[in-house]
């Protein structure tokens, strides 16, 4: 597969954002913990974001915002079911995540 223009940079930036979310912050009122613990899981999350973006013809940054911030499907679905999802093909994963987004009411 040939990467789209700027896709590598976006891939890298998205990976850094997801990795930062995976860090366990300890503070007086801040406790953030994601399930993306390994590089393989991180890479898969980025793959999912790009697959859904291509499927919907959206900017991957918008898909990331929808999955991570608005619905939390990045942690609650993609990371949680990584073991099953990563065995599927790109189209199935994109359609499955879109189905979950619709079930959450995030997409019409």
Structural summary, described in words:
The protein has one domain (7-103). It has 108 residues and is mainly α. The protein starts with 6 loop residues before the first helix and ends in a 5-residue tail after the last helix. It has helices at 7-22, 39-56, 60-70, 73-79, 82-85, 90-103. The longest helix has 18 residues, at 39-56.
Describe the protein's topology.
Blueprint: H1 7-22, H2 39-56, H3 60-70, H4 73-79, H5 82-85, H6 90-103
Keywords, please?
mainly alpha; about 110 residues; about 65% helix; globular
Question: What's the gist of this structure?
Answer:
By secondary structure, this protein is an all-alpha fold. It has 6 helices and no strands.
The sequence of SSEs as H and E is: HHHHHH
Most strands sheet = none
**Number of distinct beta strands:** 0
Mean pLDDT: 79
Helix fraction bin = 55-70%
Span of the ends, CA to CA: 30 Å
Strand content: under 5%
> Which term fits the overall shape?
globular
Number of domains: 1
Summing up helix and strand content along with how strands pair, one would put the structural category as mainly alpha
Number of helices: 6
Q: What are the low-pLDDT stretches, counting only 5+ consecutive residues below 50?
A: 23-33
Radius of gyration: 14 Å
Quaternary organisation? single chain
């Amino acid at each position: 597969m040939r990467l789209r223009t700027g896709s590598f940079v976006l891939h890298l930036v998205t990976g850094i954002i997801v990795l930062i979310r995976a860090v366990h912050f300890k503070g007086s009122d801040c406790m953030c913990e994601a399930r993306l613990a390994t590089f393989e899981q991180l890479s898969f999350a980025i793959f999912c974001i790009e697959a859904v973006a291509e499927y919907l013809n959206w900017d991957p940054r918008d898909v990331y915002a929808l999955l991570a911030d608005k619905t939390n499907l990045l942690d609650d679905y993609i990371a949680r079911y990584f073991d099953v999802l990563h065995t599927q093909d790109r189209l199935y994963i994109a359609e499955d995540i879109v189905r979950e987004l619709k079930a959450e009411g995030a997409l019409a």
